[in-house]
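Purpose: get a first structural picture of the assembly so the mutagenesis plan has something to point at.
Setup: two entries, given in the order below. No constraints added.
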Amino acid sequence: MVSIRSISVSPSSLIPADLPWVIQHREDRCTLCGRCTSACPTQAIYLAYRRKRMPKLNIGGEIGNDFKTFTGIRQRTDVAHRCIGCGMCAMVCPNEAITPGPNPNDSRLKFHMNQGGEAWKRGGRRNNGDTILDRVIFTRISMLTDPALDAGRHEFFINTILGRILSPEEYLRRKAAGEWIPPTREIFPFVIGSMSFGALSPNMWLGLLQGVAYCNEVLGIPVAMATGEGGCPPWVLKSPFLKYIILQIASGYFGWDEIIRAIPEMQCDPCAIEIKYGQGAKPGDGGLLMWYKVSKLIARLRGVPEGVDLPSPPVHQTLYSIEESVMKMIQTMSMAWGFRVPVYPKISGSTSAKAVLNNLVRNPYAGGLLMDGIDGGTGAAYNVSMDSMGHPIASNLRECYLDLVAQGKQNEIPLFAAGGIGKNGNVAQNGMALIMLGASGVHIGKYMMQAAAGCLGSERNRCNVCNIGVCPKGITSQNPKLYRRLDPDAVAQRVVDVFLAIRTEIKKIMAPLGRSQSLPIGMSDALGINDAAAAERLKIRYIC
Amino acid sequence: MCRLALKTANEPFSPYSILKAMESMQEGYDGSGLGLLLRGLHFKDYNYGGEHPILSGIAHTEKALARLNSIMENKGFELKYDHEFNTDLSLIEAKDRHKYFVREYRPPASWKSLDKEGAGQEMMLTRLELRKDGEDNGGDITVFSFWPDVAIIKEVGWPLEVGRALGLDDDRINARVVMAQGRQNTNYGINLYACHPFFVQGIATMTNGENTAFVPIKEWLQGRHFPGYIGYQSDSEVFTHILHYVTKKLKLPLETYKHVITPLKTEELAGHPQGEFLMGLKTACRRLIIDGPNCVMGSLPDETTLLVMDHKKMRPGVIGGRPGEWAMSSEMCGLEAMIPERDRSADFQPMREHTVIVPPDRKEYKVWYQFDPFPFRLAA
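Result (structure tokens, whole complex):
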């Protein structure tokens, strides 16, 4: 049967009320300046000219119609042009005439995010505001016998160690024998997590690095930042700032030609090398840089043609088994810098994390383990991977830490945790909870984008278009028209603000616990949670 | 806050004199536990050679004592001397005290083939076996030490009462080193094993204050899987085990203890003559960094005694005395009570970077400063 054309509907026809975000536009305030429509990253709104018919019903008079035209802002409802709720329209509107509002009804968009058979890919986060970390509180407050410390005036030692640490016996033995002592770094326990030069815009990257350099060189906060896959700008590789950078090598090996070639010209060693085996946002999946973002600069850095998708394989292809891979890659990377740089793997949070860890314990070159939980963010991934694959970080980390405790190796392989730290803004509290559960430090990515650059993403599927290079703030775009919106100096200032505040909050947490002499790694007796099952799983105190 | 008193002298003295010093500091503890360690023993009615191990503890019932006897007999120990205290149990709060024992045992013949370390291991394992046997039987045996020339008494109650209850004022048992601690019960239950001084293989320490890094340190020590690193009824027990680990396991000089529990800052180590070695040591022993406030007093098998402060909110501690006898105390009045005739201008209150050591000759006390070069070949 031929379908009728008079009512124009298709299977994916939606109305604004079917979308997660609905444009609220006040025509009485709109001056038709057009700023909103030009700023909208998805062209979800457009300036429309409409015709209005007014029937004339003059009794005894002439019968007919009056026609008028009027203008207004309208919302597109096709999937490609859906409103993503970023709110750039509201940000540029001179008259507060427009804003996106969350749709309280059930959104039907998800049913249609597979046009052309393409499963939904996006950037951002898991879109789930729940986190056990927010519920952990610090309950062991020092009182009479050991009065609380003065967070403002007392001296605190809050740095952590990255790199393989020998047992005291082995340290003394090697020292006596004149043998190699594995390199370690004393760093701030909050690390800027891997976000690649490619995922991030040049201005964002520059701003982060400027902020990190200021923290290290002026404030004495030894912040490190990780690159993610895709190399590092050559001017950074040859600069004295490289010592603050953790270079990541991942399964696509993008950017490593540049890095290896730059080794003879490096002024200093990098902070560390991170070998990515997995990430929290898309466990079991390789990195993904979609073609939109493969600009001329990125193509040069990665050694690829412009404008092609760059999906990295899920595993490092060159080797036979993961054990062998880990061993050979760690040794190769160690050797490249004369065994002077810590090398550690990064894996997705997973029930198999313990197996990896036990393997690393027996590898004398492994400099730590970074575990990235399910709430980790990404520049691009399949929606299903982000939402449903992986393991929450808290119990995963705790289990691995207790495994090390049972072996007496908890000081030897530092565990770093990532994935959703500060997802609701409680970054120091979340991080310190993980540290007291056993992490030597934490990596923060999304929080840095939100706090230092004003990323608009939220846990309610707001924005999340990092993958297609249309970031309205210019944070994750390679388009100069967009990234020039971001002032690197302003980002650097915010990076400094963030780390100063984290440092203060760490002290405000440690001081009442009577801790100041070392970062309270594994101080689980300080923690409590009002959930009996979680308390049992994490082996901390149940409180109510 | 607990109170500490330690005296070391060339001539054996009565432990009761130390209990009097404890009495002078009475406002600082709550009678929830008194511990007394005697080293360099001298019995009025017996000439002890100082070689054979002394077992000290409490048998809470007759049956327990019988069990203890048969365990020791079966292991081949021969009872050489059983010190009888002139006890007046009515002065003791607890009612389940059958016998306080301080006994010398001749080890089994098979130990002759053991070196010093092997014998030390066997003595510790024997003590732990007895402790375990007591715990398995409702806590009817409590064992504090099994080591040559060391006796330990622990009891709930006020120091002088406990002293009188055991007749410690009768001069029948004297010692060259006496450590006493009156406990202010903080985190943990009233338990004899929670009383200081703590002891493992000849190493003993006692502490005032509270160590907030207790749980991570305890977990790390337990990870050494060394049988003697057990107990932890008190957060202060880790101080003893760290001292044991540093001096016996790592075989490092005594001064290292300070560098392990309260290492210098990274920037301070950068300017230290042996900074590189000490930085590596700090990293390797990072889990043993304490978080006081604490003042730690200790004694070693060769009768060396020491006093170490934590790095931040230091608990009080003072040393004073004269050649041949020195006393350490958490309060001046304690020192005053132990050695009233001394040159007070030579009294010394150590600061965060000090370790005070009285060597076995007791001619003088040495103040070792953490910034000083480190007396160790490897570090040179």
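The first strand of chain B starts at residue 3 and ends at 13.
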